[in-house]
Amino acid sequence: MDKIFKNSWALFLGYAVLIIAHGLQGNLLGVRAVLENFNIIATGALMSGYFIGYFVGANSVPGLVSKVGHIRVFAAFASMASLSILFHAIVVNPYAWILGRFITGFSIIGIFVVVESWLNDRATNKTRGKVLSIYMIITFIGLGLGVLLLNFSDPKQYEPFILVSLLLSIALVPILLTKRKAPTFKKISSIKIKELYKISPLATFSMFCSGFIHPVIFTLGAVYGALMNFSVLEISLYLFLITISGAVFQWPIGYLSDLFDRRLIIIITALLGALFAILCFFSVSISPDFINLSSDWKIVFQHITNHRLFFYIFISLYAGMSLPLFSLNLAYINDFLPKEKFVSAGAGMQVIFGLSAMFAPFACSFFMKQLGPNGLFVFLFIFQTAIGLFGIYRMTKRRIEENPDNTFTPMPRNITPLGIELDPDTGVDLSVDEKNYKN
Fold first, then answer.
1. CA-CA distance, 417 to 333, in Å (whole number)?
2. Does domain 2-428 have CATH number 1.20.1250.20?
3. Max CA distance (Å), the chain
4. I want to staple 96 with a disulfide (CB 3.0 to 4.6 A). Which of 32, 91, 327, 429 is the partner?
5. What is the DSSP string of 5-63?
6. What is the percentage of the chain residues whose pLDDT exceeds 70?
7. For residues 219 and 327, is the Cβ–Cβ distance under 8 A?
8. Contact 279, 381 (CB under 8 A)
9. CB-based contact 377:280 (threshold 8 Å)
C-alpha cells in the first residue's frame, strides 16, 4: 500500500482536491437556485445539463485524449470546469446555468477518463484491487468533504464559487508536475444495449432505473433541503450522511450478494430503499391530518416530524440501500459473462445509466412542482419499487447462475470503463515493469 501511494501520490492528491470541488459545486448551485427563486422546472433542467454534458463527453473525450494526450486534456478540462463555476457566479440566470452545467459535465468526465487511464497504467495485476479501493475511498470522502464546504460562506455570495474555482485550479498542480510519462490511451468498446438486455433483463432494467435515482439524490438533494427551509448546515449534514452511508453500505451488501442469489439482494435493497423513501417523505413537515391518524398517533407523529434526527436516520438508510445498486447491477450482469467481457459490459451499462441520468433531474422537477418538495421522495419511491417488482418477476423466469470468475466490487457511480478495468475480476492484463514506477 505504501508503494502505491509513493508512486501515485500526485495523481491521488490532485484527484482528491478535484473531487472535493466537485462535491461542493453541484450542491452549491442547487441551494443558490432556490435562493434566486428559480422555477423548479428550470432548476431540474440545469441539473440535467450536467449529465447531458457528461454523456456527450463520455463518447467524445476518449478520441480527444488519443489525439492530444492526457496532460493537455486534463489541463484543458480542469481549466474549463474552473471557468464554468465562475461563469455561474457572474451570470445568475437559469438558462445560462444550463449551459454552464453542460460545460462542467463535459469537463468532469474528461478529467475522470484521464485519471482512471493513468491509474490503470500505474496498477499491476497484484495492486489494481488496492488502487481501486483507494480511488473509491478518495471519491466518497472527497464528495463528503465537498458538501460540508457549503458552510464556507453564504451561497448567495461569490466566495463559494471562487473556492470551487480555486480548488479546481489547485488540483492541476500535482498532476502537471508529475515526472512520469503519460500512458498510452486505449479506447474501450461497449456491448450494445439490446444485447445487454438479452444477457440480463434485470441488471439492464435496474441500471436504467438507477440512472433516474442516483442523479436526483446528488443534484436535487440540496434543492430539496433549501425548499424545506433547512439551514445550510443541515443541508450539508444530511448530504454528507448520504455520501458516507452510500459508501459504507457497499461492503456488507456486496458481501451478502456474493453469498446469496444476487437478484434477491437487489430486490431487498430496492424495496427497503422504497420504504425509507416513504419514511423520509413523512418525516419532515407533513401534517398528521394528511394521513387521518387518530389523536394519540397524531401526537406521536407530530413528535417525530418535529425532530429532524429521524429524517437524517431515514435518509442515511435510504442512501445505504439505494447507492450500492450501481455496483450490484454491474456484478449481476457479469454473472452471465466471461471475465474478458466484464469491461465492455460495464461500458454498455454506463451508457444505459447515462441515458436515464440525462433526464432524471428534469423529470423529478415535475414531481416536485406538482407535489411540493417531497415529490422528490415520491419520484425515488417509484423507481425503487419498479426495480424490486421487476426483480421478483425475473426470479420466476430464470434460475440462479453461478460464475466463479465474478465477485461484487464496490465502485463509485462516476467510474468510467477505464476505472472498471481496475477490478481484479476483469481479467485485463495490467502488468507493467514495476522498476519503472517512478513519480
1. 15
2. yes
3. 74
4. 91
5. HHHHHHHHHHHHHHHHHHHHHHHHHHHHHHHTT--HHHHHHHHHHHHHHHHHHHHHHHH
6. 86
7. no
8. no
9. yes
Q: What is the pLDDT of residues 60-72, one digit of tens each?
A: 877 777 777 777 7
The H-assigned helical ranges of 123-181 are 128-148, 159-176
The total of other beta-carbon atoms located within 10 Å of residue 88's CB is: 25
In the numeric block, the cell 473531487 is attached to: 19
Residue spans of the domains in the chain: they are 2-428
Burial category of 272 from C-beta neighbours within 10 Å (exposed 0-12, middle 13-18, buried 19 and up): middle
Distance CA 409, CA 421 (A): 11
Residue that has been written with the C-alpha cell 488540483 in this structure: 171
Give the Å distances, CA to CA, from 428 to 121, 136, 417, 422.
12, 19, 12, 8
CA 437, CA 421: separation in Å to the nearest integer? 19
Question: CA–CA separation, 211 vs 234, rounded Å?
Answer: 26
pLDDT one-digit tens code per residue, 118-140: 777 777 767 777 787 888 888 88
